[in-house]
Structure formats: structure tokens, C-alpha cells
Design brief:
By secondary structure, the chain is an alpha/beta fold. It is built from 7 helices and 7 strands. The protein has helices at residues 18-29, 41-53, 68-78, 103-131, 151-170, 193-196, 210-222, and strands at residues 9-13, 33-38, 57-62, 85-88, 134-138, 177-183, 230-233. Helix 4 packs parallel to helix 5. Mean pLDDT is 91; it is low at 1-5.
Length: 241
């Protein structure tokens, strides 16, 4: 984080709900000025109201990360001020057997998860460079696990991990750090019902909470000598049973 700029600025994509909302609230508590990015104005406004009520600062930017032009507008609006922390929690998925998956379903999930991650990073690069910012992307732990009916999401998340590691090396001379957090079963409001039944496979014996993931996000946002890493927050489910 830059020591010469005040207040610090954080952008949270997907900030209207779930992990994004949790990260935004925590960052606001730490004195960050928030820019909340998402597709639904009402959800963003509700989170901004929570932040304002607690004495924090927040503004909303309505736009889809999969919209190149909207992300260009976002980047232009922040280029002069800079960004200290970018949390990308935007994403989407819908379960469907691969043999029945439609082109539309495949392209929609790949679009928001993988293309959207790149569009956001590509256009916020100047702002991140200005303040030597940190990026934390939420990728879901299925990036490293076979996940039947979720081929599009698993493939796109794996792509985001490689994107994160590639840009971590490419942008290291600019002192921009990029890391990812890979949640497992998490009660974020978006957990599909069929996955809730998998709790017995979690070695720690419970489904994760949003705060569990946010703890990891905050750690990576401020760990100044870590870049290109993926931190699993899944109660050990990746080890199998």
C-alpha cells in the first residue's frame, strides 16, 4: 500500500453480496475508501449504505466485469487517484452435466469468470501501478479439483489462477502483487444446494463462513512479500476423504 496517499482506495468487484460484501465491509472498517462494482445497483447501494452508516466512505459503479467498455470506464475514473487494493469476487456458475451443456452456458460462465477477470485487471492496471496496489481474486477451490457438472466454472477458475500467476510475474517490476483465495464450501448465499450436502467430506466438519474467506483476503491484501500464490480456505476438503 502506498504511504503517500490518503485515504487508501479499495475496489471490490462483486461487492453487492457474499464474499465481496464481506470484504468491502472489512476494508471500510480499516479506513479504506470503497468503490463497489457490480451489475445490480440496488445491491451495491445497500452495501454502500452499510458502510456510510458505520462512518465509512463508499461509492458505487454499476457495470459487468465482462463488459470491456464499462471496465475501461472504471479504469479511467480511477487512473489519476490510483488503487491500493482490488478484490475481485465477481463470478457466476450454474451446474449442468458436460454432455448436456449448451454453448450459451459455457460461454456465459467462461465470460464472467475468466474474461471478466482479465478485463478488470487490464483496465485497472494504471491505477494499481500508481499506488503499487495488491490484487486478491476469489477463484473457488474447484480450480484444482475434478468437479462434475461444473466443468465451465472449474476450467475458468483454473485459467484465472494461471492469469494471476502470470501477471504476478509480469507486473512485479511495478510492485503490483496478485494473489488468489480459493474457498471451498462457503455459506456465501450462492452455494448450490447439492454442494451443501457435501459437508461430511470437510475434515474440519463444517461449511465455511464469509468471514473465514475474508480473513484470507485481508491477509493476502497486506502480505507485502507474497505474490502469485493461491490460498485454499476449504476446511481441508481438497485432501479428500
Amino acid at each position: 500500500m502506498s504511504e503517500t496517499q490518503s485515504p487508501p482506495i479499495a475496489v471490490v468487484a462483486g461487492g453487492g453480496s457474499g464474499i465481496g460484501r464481506g470484504a468491502a465491509l472489512r476494508l471500510a472498517q480499516q479506513g479504506y475508501q470503497l468503490v463497489l462494482v457490480g451489475r445490480t445497483a440496488e445491491k451495491l447501494a445497500a452495501v454502500a449504505d452499510e458502510i456510510h452508516a458505520a462512518g465509512g466512505q463508499a461509492e458505487c459503479f454499476v457495470g459487468d466485469v465482462h463488459d470491456w467498455q464499462k471496465m475501461a470506464e472504471l479504469g479511467e475514473s480511477l487512473a489519476a487517484k490510483g488503487v491500493d487494493v482490488l478484490v475481485n469476487s465477481a463470478g457466476g456458475q450454474s451446474a449442468q452435466p458436460s454432455a448436456e451443456m449448451s454453448q450459451e452456458n459455457w460461454e456465459q460462465v467462461i465470460g464472467i469468470n475468466l474474461n471478466g477477470a482479465f478485463y478488470l485487471l487490464r483496465h485497472l492496471y494504471p491505477a494499481l501501478k500508481k499506488r503499487q496496489g495488491a490484487v486478491v481474486t476469489i477463484v473457488a477451490n474447484m480450480w484444482q479439483l475434478p468437479t462434475p457438472t461444473m466443468a465451465h466454472s472449474a476450467a475458468s477458475r483454473a485459467g484465472v489462477v494461471n492469469l494471476t500467476r502470470t501477471l504476478a510475474k509480469e507486473w512485479a517490476p511495478d510492485r503490483i502483487r496478485l494473489n488468489a483465495v480459493a474457498p471451498g464450501l462457503t455459506d456465501s448465499g450462492a452455494l448450490l444446494p447439492q454442494f451443501k450436502a457435501m459437508v461430511e467430506r470437510v475434515p474440519l466438519g463444517r461449511i465455511g463462513e464469509v468471514d473465514d474467506v475474508v480473513d484470507a483476503v485481508m491477509f493476502l491484501a497486506h502480505a507485502s512479500y507474497i505474490t502469485g500464490e493461491v490460498l485454499s480456505v476449504d476446511g481441508g476438503i481438497r485432501f479428500g476423504v
